[in-house]
Amino acid sequence: MTDVLAITEHRRDELRDVSLEMVTAGRDLADQTGGDLHLAVISGDVDDYADQANREGVDVIHTVEYGEEFNHDVYTQAIEQLYAELDPQYLLAPNSVNGLDYAPAVAEGLSLPLVTDVVDLEFEDGLTVTREQYGGKVETTIDVAEDHAAVTIRPAEWAQAEGDGDATIEAFDADIDEGQIQSTVTGYEEVAGGDVDISEADFLISIGRGIDEEANITLIESLVEATDATLSSSRPIVDNGWLPANRQVGQSGKVVTPDVYIAIGISGAVQHVAGMKGADTIVTINTDPNAPIWDLADYGIEDDLFEVVPALIEEFGGEVPDV
After folding, report:
1. What is the model's pTM?
2. How confident is the prediction for the chain on average, in pLDDT?
3. Is residue 320 part of a domain?
């Protein structure tokens, strides 16, 4: 009963990054409880997903072959049956659209307490979780009184697990009651403004209020082109209608984890920071030395962006536009 069971996630033929983040979170928790880490891979090309998820620290991977895409009723039945078979102490799921779809139903079906959107896990004579409240301004620690619990973890809070694993891969024969499957995925449709998925970008240049007016985005776009980066923004830029919603980084936008994140004219409000603090290297260009973004930045330039950005464009061989 000291084991941890984590549910991986895939979408449209790709294992999502949060699956590897859950390996890290699950391994750390299992080390604290003294148990093994089990992963579940449900639906789709389970053998391929299992190979991808077989990272250092995973003890057993259980595969459930049924359908291709996520289905609430399939996942709920498969997870409940696997949990009953393994009797782990804790069940981990991603705090994602899919995870939040099935986790409450599974917790209800298994009579488990459920804690969502967790950013830290500690175990010492019981589980203590950390959640953020009020837009990330306050951290709250919660002691889970029950010996068993279900938890959803926030994407981008843990590093992705690395290293080749030697987990045992076992097929789990879930008894799926087709009469209980009430819906099926019939296809996908891209929403308007979905030309770029900033959550997949390795290098983001992000803009905020400091650019002053929409016409100045042309200057930033020249830097983006010169550095082969992807353009993103804080919420005010989207609220003003200067960039589409799919470019927004933050609590009400996308969570991003690029290798490099350059924040230009962004103060660093907690709502924005919640979406980009997982970047490997953070650079800020800001005239305000007291802006919160400096607390997060690895490197920074305290100067006027309209002086710095043209110099960077020239340095990278680009052409500075007239703005």
Report:
1. 0.79
2. 93
3. no
Residues 213 and 171 in one domain: no
Report yes or no on 185 lying in a domain: no
Describe the chain by its helix, strand, coil percentages, rounded to 5: 35, 25, 40
What range defines the domain where residue 279 resides?
198-315
Q: Are residues 162 and 249 in the same domain?
A: no
Per-residue pLDDT of 215-263, as tens digits, reads: 999 999 999 999 999 999 999 999 999 999 999 999 889 889 999 999 9
Predicted confidence (pLDDT) at residue 32 exceeds the cutoff of 70: yes
d(CA 26, CA 21): 9
CA-based nearest residue to 303, from 317, 288, 315, 291: 288
Token output for 186: 């019939």
Pairing relationship of beta strands 299-301 and 37-42 according to DSSP bridges: unpaired
Which strands make up the sheet holding 90-94, listed edge to edge?
138-144, 127-133, 114-123, 149-153, 90-94, 4-7, 37-42, 60-64, 168-171
Strands (E), the chain: 4-7, 10-11, 14-15, 37-42, 60-64, 90-94, 114-123, 127-133, 138-144, 149-153, 168-171, 203-207, 230-233, 260-264, 281-285, 299-301
